[in-house]
Design goal:
The complex is a heterodimer of chains A (316) and B (262). Chain A is α/β, with parallel strands linked by helices and 316 residues long. Chain A is built from 9 helices and 18 strands. Chain A has an 8-stranded parallel barrel, surrounded by 7 helices. Chain A has a 4-stranded antiparallel sheet with strand order 5-6-16-13, with no helix packed on it. In chain A, β5 and β6 form a beta hairpin. Chain B has 262 residues and is of the alpha/beta class. Chain B has 7 helices and 16 strands. Classes of the chains: A alpha/beta (316), B alpha/beta (262). At the A-B interface, β5, β6 and α8 of A face β14 of B.
């Protein structure tokens, strides 16, 4: 009897490297859209994910904003959840055991209102079993510097990166805010600060008004826009940043389909994160893993890595 | 806790009044697992706009795998859903949330106001199935006018419970509020009140229940993106001073857990 070796057809090579972290495929779930992963265990096979990025964690628990916290907009939604989370200590004691038991890298998103808070959270996460990486949310206001977001000032973004990097025992990914005039300046600053990778984009600041009441729909007045509405902006920024820095870039913003994900890889992203689409189809990230695998097989690619940054720009 | 994402075939579309519709969906997984008071998230279209699913309480289920929702056209999503034809497919996700906790040994007072009537049919059915003696149970339905109440009355009559009806304009039943009818009943502290309707109605029902020493369960509404505890969009302040989430800890709550602005 003859066996045909077609394993490559069955198991296309989807591995990608995010610095020193090798992941099985380029699909991650974005922070704040996937809870602490357990919420999705009955709805999909969590082990198929490249990595899971959990809900942003602060030093102390945060209650979040008053309602209404979300509103649907054209091809998207605005949210002002207010970084509600259980705080780093309860995260470690209540959520981490389950996450560590998953067969996939767990990346912990962290946030703070001061450099000291970022430092402290990183220290508490050091040595915790199951933490494969840290993603730093720098869109938070710097309370000590008058509430200007860390992510909008290149020097502050670099300072946060450095503070986390000095204390982290795992790779550090810095998540950029798109609410800046030149994203490449912030990207360069966090690369210089020692970031191992960059993820982008966080939400675009937006607003919705209720004409009947003449009031903002969100209790917080403004909120972050996400969903397919922001995909072209995200793609442009990923392209710009990937062309600027030499560390890996992770694309985020309105990805709903395999085709969306592949566009980000062509633009230079080594991996992608699925956000708002998780709310509409809890299985979407697993479906995109399957879709990318099928693409690699159908296009007879040696691996998914071969298309990263493969965008052709016609010079003529 | 079993949840399903199903491609449900629409088996029937009924227009019950100018803006109110009832949809019957073939959704055996969800219909089989659902409890009274739980809800489903439905995609009203397949395009990117409107983007999010919409939450709907489950109106009733049947043993043959059918599930009904009863809704009013209030925006683009519900407008699209009202135009769905029998035979078409919609994406449905559920059952979600915590439903009513039926007290088998306690006389039940079921109160539905306006669209809040929707989950009460499922509840009345479940109560009648669970309890051996329903002779002291009541159903009270109300709305702004006749068309919000009358089309559903026959469905509630099948249980043989005492039925009270009220409309704000008096075009059907008692002129006034469901709470007038609630107060007119001979209430005692052993009764359990189950209510769903506009916030001021539920606040008033709770206040009457409280002064009568009765347990009161309410089903509340909220905007939500996911329906399953991931987006944290459906927050509601509790008496403890912390936020609860309607999708996971509700939509049915003990009214005493929540803050009411009456």
């Amino acid at each position: 009897m003859e066996f045909i070796d077609n394993r490559e057809d069955i198991f296309p090579d989807l591995r990608v490297n995010i610095g020193s972290l090798e992941i099985a495929n380029p699909v991650m779930t974005a922070s704040g859209t996937f809870g602490y992963a357990r919420e999705f265990e009955n709805l999909m096979n969590l082990h198929r994910l490249g990595a899971v990025i959990v809900k942003g964690i602060s030093l102390y628990p945060r209650p979040g904003n008053p309602p209404p916290r979300i509103v649907e907009t054209a091809c998207g939604m605005l949210n002002a959840i207010g970084l509600q989370n259980v705080g780093v200590d309860r995260f470690i004691s209540e959520k981490m055991d389950y996450l560590a038991g998953l067969n996939i890298p767990v990346i912990v998103n962290i946030l703070g209102d001061s450099l000291a808070e970022y430092r402290e959270i990183t220290e508490r996460l050091a040595g915790v079993p199951g933490v494969a990486g840290i993603e730093v949310n720098i869109s938070c206001p710097n309370v000590k510097k008058g509430g200007v977001a860390f992510g909008t000032d290149p020097s502050m973004a670099a300072a946060v990166t450095k503070a986390v990097k000095e204390r982290a025992d795992v790779p550090v990914m810095v998540k950029l805010s798109p609410n800046v005039s030149d994203i490449t300046l912030v990207a360069r600053a966090v690369e210089d600060g020692g970031a191992d990778s960059i993820s982008l984009i966080n939400t675009l600041i937006g607003m919705a008004i209720d004409l009947k009441t003449r009031r903002p729909v969100l209790a917080n007045v403004i909120g972050g826009l996400s969903g397919p509405a922001i995909k072209p902006v995200a793609l442009r920024m990923v392209y710009q940043v990937a062309s600027t820095v030499s560390i890996p870039v992770i694309g985020i913003g309105g990805i709903e389909t395999t085709e969306d994900a592949l566009e980000f890889l062509l633009a230079g992203a080594s991996a992608i994160q699925i956000g708002t689409a998780n709310f509409i189809n809890p299985r979407v990230s697993e479906e995109i893993v399957e879709g990318i695998g099928k693409y690699v097989v159908d296009e007879k690619l040696p691996s998914i890595r071969s298309i990263i940054g493969g965008l052709s720009i016609n010079d003529g | 806790m079993s949840q399903y994402q199903e491609k449900a075939t629409v088996s029937r579309v009924e227009q019950l009044s100018a803006k109110n519709y009832r949809l019957t969906l073939d959704s055996p997984g969800i219909a089989g697992a659902a409890k009274a008071g739980q809800f489903v998230m439905i995609r009203t279209g397949l395009a990117k706009d409107p983007l999010l699913r919409r939450p709907f309480s489950i109106h009733q289920t049947s043993a043959n795998g059918h599930l009904q929702i009863y809704f009013k056209v209030v925006g683009r999503g519900t407008d699209m859903l009202a135009r769905v034809k029998a035979g078409e497919i919609v994406s449905i996700f559920g059952p979600l949330g915590r439903g009513f906790q039926i007290n088998k040994n306690s006389p039940a007072i079921i109160i539905g106001g306006g669209l809040g009537i929707a989950p009460m049919l499922f509840l009345a059915k479940s109560i009648c199935r669970l309890k051996t003696d329903c002779s002291n149970d009541h159903i009270i339905l109300g709305g702004r006018e006749r068309s919000e109440v009358e089309p559903l009355v026959n469905d509630f009559k099948q249980f043989g419970l005492k039925l009270g009806l009220a409309t704000d304009d008096g075009s059907y039943g008692h002129q006034g509020y469901v709470t007038d009818l609630l107060k007119s009943l001979e209430l005692h502290s052993g009764c359990t009140v189950y209510a769903c309707g506009p916030e001021p109605m539920m606040a008033r029902v709770y206040s009457i229940s409280k002064s009568g020493g009765m347990q009161c369960q309410v089903s509340v509404e909220s905007v939500m993106a996911c329906g399953m505890g991931a987006c944290l969009g459906c927050s509601r302040m509790t008496k403890k001073g912390t936020y609860t989430h309607v999708c996971l800890n509700g939509p049915v709550f003990n009214a005493e857990e929540l803050i009411w602005n009456s």
